[in-house]
Amino acid sequence: MKNLKIYKSSLSRIQLPKDATSALIINYGEFCYATNNAIYRSNSDLQHQLAVYDNFSMVIDLSTTKMYIDQDVQIVSYAYNTPWNSFVVGCSNGDVLLIQENIVEVAFKCEDVVATILCSPDFERIILLTEHGHVTLVTECFEVLNNFNITETSLAEKTLVNVGWGKKETQFHGSEGKDKRHVNEVIGDGDCADDSVNVCWRSDSLLFAIGYFNKITNLRSIKIFNRDGVLQSISEPLSGIEAVLSWKTTKELISFSQHINEKYCISFMEKNGLKHGEFSIPSTINVKQLLWNHDSSILCIQCVKSNNNYLLFLSCTNYSWQIKKWLTVHDKVITVKWLPDNSLQLITADGTYYILHWVETLCSSSSGTLDWVAVIDDCSILLTPFKQVIIPPPMFDVKLIFECHVDSVLYLPHNQNKNGNDICVVTDDRSIHFYNYKDVLYTKSKTINSILNATGLCNHWFWLNENTLIFSLSEVGNFHFICILKVDNDSINITKHPVDQPIVGIINHKNGALIQLSVGNVLLWNEELNQIDPHINLPEECTCINIMDNKIYALGVSKRLFENDKVILNNIGSFCIRYPFVLAATLNQELIVHNINPTKDSNNQYRRRVESGSKIITVTGNSVILQLPRGNLETIRPRPLTILSAIELIQERKYFTTFDLLRKERINLNIICDLDPLKFIDDLDEFVIQIKDLSWINLFITELDDKNYLNTVYASQFQQNMVEELPNKVFIICSQLINTLNKLDTDKYAFPLLGCYVKLKRFDLALNLASTNNAFLKHLLFLVDVDKLYKTSLAEYNLEMAMQIINNSQLDPKEYVPFLKELEKMECHYMRFTIDDKLGNKESAVKNLVLCEGQFDKWLKYVIDNNLYAYTLTLFNQDQNEYKIIAKHFGDVLYSKMDYLQAALMYNQSTERKKAINSYLKIGFWKEPLELSYELNFSELEMNEIKANILSMLSSTQKFREAADFAEFEMRNTELAVEYSIKAQDYMHALYLARSRSILDTYLENNIKLACINTTQNLISDINIQREKFESFVIRLLEIKVDISNESMSYDNLNDTSSEISSVSSYRTSSTRTSCRSARKQQRKMWNLKKGNFREQPTIVLNLKQIIEKFDKFKDDVKSMCILLIKLEEFDLSVTLQTSLESLQTCILKNKSNIWPVFNETEQIIEDAILLNPLKILPDKSWKLSILE
């Protein structure tokens, strides 16, 4: 489906002398030419194409060469040896010269004149062919491998043999018919046959072929030799063969021109000499040379027609050869050559040097049309609208025929309002033909003849709008122009804009057109201002360029795909665009759909495998048309394109088409409602009316999900970033759909209604609908598990429906029917209890059992067995006897579980409230049991016993302060209150009670005083211990800091490699998997105060911090104890206590700077965090008593 175009061209002038006899292209921009006596080579810079080549260096001049200075020797043939940078020259006296580094030597001598010298592609073999057909095959060192005359009769190594298939007349010939049974006699070519000898090598240098005229058979024959000159095979007898011979670069076939009856053909031959097909070419031309590009995808035919020189360029698809380009050459072609970069170079007799870079191109209409693809075939255009029909080449849908050869086919870009199906055709006589598409027919609307008389090359034709065409013009002298063609009725106006580099592409732009130059620069032609300005620079030269969303997408020669100047994909063979996707076929058999917009999951690429060598032809709807290497077409539907098409259809409210598309492509149907849920709900009537098919509606209901698939599953394939989600989507849509279906026709849409009920898990409503028709019930059984429906019908106490479900299912009637019959005989509430108990609805079961008369013992046992106390309590009032009985049993259960508080609450509401007192005491409550005791009017003896139990409980739980209050206020026992105050170390309160109640005696005072002195002494001891620890920690901390400073100095002298080696972990230590116990053990080791521990310094600081925090707690205790001691006349002891704490405070303030020194900013990054957060220590004196100082 592809055409050929010259995507880059340059025309230069060569200053050839008049006596130049031949020329030879060596490399890109490098060539040589020869006269009768001399060879000259160009001295150009290969990196730049020159306007004029006039700088040549002489390779050899026989007239000045010492060995031929007195002889009339001329140059007959020559060849260039690339690896050795040398020339092999054949002279008229039979000498073969080797010229290397200006050294000339006679490498070989022939008895006859060497008319042709041909090196093998690997330059390891050289063929020397004389005028009389004598062939000498030599190595690169001119060692003779073989020597023979081409006309000699000899036996080939691989002679064809008859394998016994019978005569030609008796063989089956298939579609060729019976006429092929007769062997046609091969007629000789006659006296007009060309008797010249021609030779060609195969690209791998293993074989070469020689064509010659066989005078015995009066036919031209072709002999195939191996690289050592041994004859392998001879061609079968064929008439009409011309002296044009070329081996395809892909090695399989030899090509040659041939006259067959009245046809003129290019024929092919296998290496065994048998013909392998042909194709016709215009009979008006005369073929001079056949040239294949590097991969044999393009055949160039050098020919002459009516004394005019042409180059024909052909390509093959599905074994059909088509002429894609007629290139007119205005003078005789001296030499022509394909180079590996797919550039064709030729030199003409007038000194014009062409460099033409060829590329395959696709001529397709823009999006929004019928997706036409145009294929050029000589004077015809083969058109196929892929939106309507997919036809593989060489077949077509519409064919347009012209009088001249077609050069280009143009379509309007997609931003034009004009019909995008119209075409503009440019022919090789530079005429322009406009065709309108209407009513499935193309009709010619206008023709403009011969718009330009310049001799340059016109390429890159671009139809910008109805009246404007743009093309490039390359003229001799390496001049390049952008030409703007304005059409006004029958008159035309052409404006030329010169540019510095060859033009390689033209595309549309909102302000005009973008022109890409060969160096990657992109220029903008502003239509309104009619001027060209720089626009953007691409990283490299690009062979294919397109624009979408004001961004340029270009495929570089390095097979990288650019978005403006950024690489987005690599290894790309072809691409096309459809907003918002770039579709690319890679060289490693993948199709990539790249979303140009960022996606929510950062996955903006969809990939799938395709056949090797596939290239994108066009995109139509949700289909990508790929062409395989042989020419066949393959249609695939990438998921992103399908979703994009579905979204467009949903927005157009084409629900039937959308549903059908998603169902065929196996895409979740949720996206129908996920794009705009509220709009979809409003369109439910339209949705149901369009779909019609009940099975499709059921399928939609089945796939409904609360998840928004456009935001989750298809997020990377959806062009928008986020769509608004509908909470409780399934519930809302099913509810609205139920209303819609009921409004339309309940019986008709019963199946979808059942699906909605099942989706909402409203099996009761589904059973109600299914009960009206046995077919509905069968459908419901298909949707829902039969056991679930059976249990649902039982839960509704609908025994009749349960029986229908059994009869319409595979359930065993013997197992279920007796149970149903038994239920029918039961009392209503007891039947419901039995059903609920069987279904596991315990609460409903106990409720129904309670409603049964005379079943108290049974329901009480049921409550106890199933632990239904809390629910059963809600069925009675608190003043009912049943409530109190249940509360008592509930309390027992809670008491057994040691939940004494809730047990007490339940006992308090039961018939056994006394048990609540014991439960309260179990959890340490004493006010609640007293309150309950007073409420129950206990006797004095019982009250005393309860109070004793409370006091014992408070004492055993060491709640001495509460015990003191209880003894004082409830038991009226001051002495006991004083005793418990002393135990609580509340000496001030004990002293207050003793003095305020006038019970203070010597014994009691001594007890208070003794307890106070003991507490003070313990406090002094604790303070002194903390001070000693603090001082020892500070001393050790200073030692550690000194050691660290000494070690850091020695570490600075170590080589950096030591740290690198020590940081390498083994496979045993690189991954740590410790248990919790090991982790705690490791944590204890980390904060160990053992000398030498690697975290000893932060551990010491942590301990010092804890001592300082203890000092803050000591201050209040010391102050209160000092006041009490003064009241007890223990003045000396109070002074000692205050002095000890003051000593600890002084020690802390003195060493604060040693513990937390002020670090600079760099050190703070390195040090441990605990060393960087000092406590706020202020010289506080508020805790001191000044009378003790």
UniProtKB/TrEMBL annotation:
Keyword hit for Zinc-finger: no
GO molecular function (one): tRNA binding
InterPro entries recorded: A-sol_ELP1, Beta-prop_ELP1_1st, Beta-prop_ELP1_2nd, Elp1, HB_ELP1, Quino_amine_DH_bsu, TPR_ELP1
Top-rank taxon, per record: Eukaryota
Biological process, per Gene Ontology: tRNA wobble base 5-methoxycarbonylmethyl-2-thiouridinylation
One GO CC term on file: elongator holoenzyme complex
Entry-linked Pfam families: A-sol_ELP1, Beta-prop_ELP1_1st, Beta-prop_ELP1_2nd, HB_ELP1, TPR_ELP1
All residue ranges annotated as the ELP1 alpha-solenoid domain in the record: 639-823
Intracellular or extracellular location(s): Cytoplasm; Nucleus
Positions of the ELP1 TPR domain: 830-990
Annotated coiled-coil segments of the chain: none
Signal sequence annotation: none
The protein's annotated pathway: tRNA modification; 5-methoxycarbonylmethyl-2-thiouridine-tRNA biosynthesis
Presence of keyword Nucleus: yes
Record keywords, A-Z: Cytoplasm, Nucleus, tRNA processing
Domain ELP1 N-terminal second beta-propeller intervals: 375-617
ELP1 first N-terminal beta-propeller domain location: 1-338
ELP1 three-helical bundle domain: residues covered: 1004-1155
Database matches in SUPFAM superfamilies: YVTN repeat-like/Quinoprotein amine dehydrogenase
Matches recorded under PANTHER family: ELONGATOR COMPLEX PROTEIN 1
Function: Component of the elongator complex which is required for multiple tRNA modifications, including mcm5U (5-methoxycarbonylmethyl uridine), mcm5s2U (5-methoxycarbonylmethyl-2-thiouridine), and ncm5U (5-carbamoylmethyl uridine). The elongator complex catalyzes formation of carboxymethyluridine in the wobble base at position 34 in tRNAs.
The family this protein is said to belong to: Belongs to the ELP1/IKA1 family.
Protein's recorded name: Elongator complex protein 1
Species this chain originates from: Cinara cedri
